[in-house]
Predict the 3D structure of the following.
Amino acid sequence: MVAVLFVRRWFRRHAHNYSADMPQRFHQGAVPRLGGVGMLLGWLAGLTVLAVLPRLGVFLGVSIGWGLYAALVVVVSMVVLVGAAEDVTQRVSVRWRLACTGLAGVLAVVWMDVSVPRLGWPVLDAWWASLPWLGMLLAVFAIMGLTHAFNIIDGYNGLAGLVAVLIGLALAHISLQVGDRQLAVLSLGLVATTAGFLVWNYPRGLIFAGDGGAYLWGVLIALISILLVQRHPMVSPWFVVLLLIYPVWETLFSMYRKLARGDSPGLADALHLHQLIYRRLVRAMFDDDEVRDLLSRNNRTTPYLIAFAMMSVAPAVFFWNNTWVLMFFTALFAVTYVSAYLMIVRFKIPDWLKH
C-alpha cells in the first residue's frame, strides 16, 4: 500500500503521455499506470522477509531457500519491468513483450524446474509422462499466456485485482489442504500485495495497475498453479484450468473474435465482455459524461464481472480433486460466457440483470 502510494506521487507526470484516444480508455484525466511497480516493490519486501525470518529463528513454519528466492525475484521482476516499460513509453510491441514473458518462462523451467506433469486424463498421462519436454513447453506457454490474459481483463477499477485476490485465496486454501505451507504463503503474499494496491485503485481509481501489474498477477499465479499441480498428484490439473478459466477464456474468445474479423489478435479493441457490460448495462444508469460519473461507471462495472468470475472459482475450490466435475464446470463456464456475450451484443439483456 505504501509503495503504490509513493509510486503514484513519484511518477505522476508520465500519466500525461497516455493518449486520450486509446480504444480501451474508459476514464478521464491523467491517472498513473505504474501500480505494477509499486506492487513489485511491496511483493519483493514481503518475499525478502519470508526468506530472512526463518534464518533468524522466527516464522519457522515456512522456509524459502535462496535459490528459489533468487529465481522468483528474477523471473517476476523481468516480466513486470517489461510491462512497466510499455506503460511508460507505449512503444514496446506485443511481439517483444511475448518474447520477454517467454524468456521468463524458460528461466522458470530451467531454474525452478517447473513443468506440467500430467493432463488429468489417465489415457494420455502415461504418454505425456514419457515426453517430459511437453510438460516444460506447456509450462512456458502457460506463463506467457496468463500474463497477457490478466492484461486483457484489466480494464476497470478493481476488476483484475479482485480476480487475482479470489484466485490467490483459492490457491492458498488448496495449498493448505494438501499441506504445502510454502505455496500457501506465496499465494497470500500475492493477495496482500494486491490488497495494498486496491486501496488506491478501487473504487476511486487513483492509480492503475498497467501492463506491469497485470503481468505480476499473471506470472505469479501461473508459477504457483504449476507448482501446486506438480508437487501434489491429488490436485487435478483441471482445478487450475477451471480456476483460471475467466481470464483464459476471455483471451481465447478475443483472439477468435479478432481473427474472424480479419484483425490481428494483438490489436487492442473495446469489445471485451467487461467493456460491453460497461456500455450496455452500467452506462445506462447515467445521463451525462462528467468526470465523476465516468469514474462511477468504471467501478460499478466490476461487481458484475466478479460475480461472473465466482462461477469458476467456487466450483474449482469445492471439487479441486475431481477431474470430471471440474471439466464439466469448465465447459459450462465457456457456454455461459458465449451465451452472455451474444445476449449483450444482441440487446437481449433480461430486465432482472438490468435492475
Q: What stands out?
A: The chain has a mean pLDDT of 86. The longest helix spans residues 291-318. The radius of gyration is 20 Å.
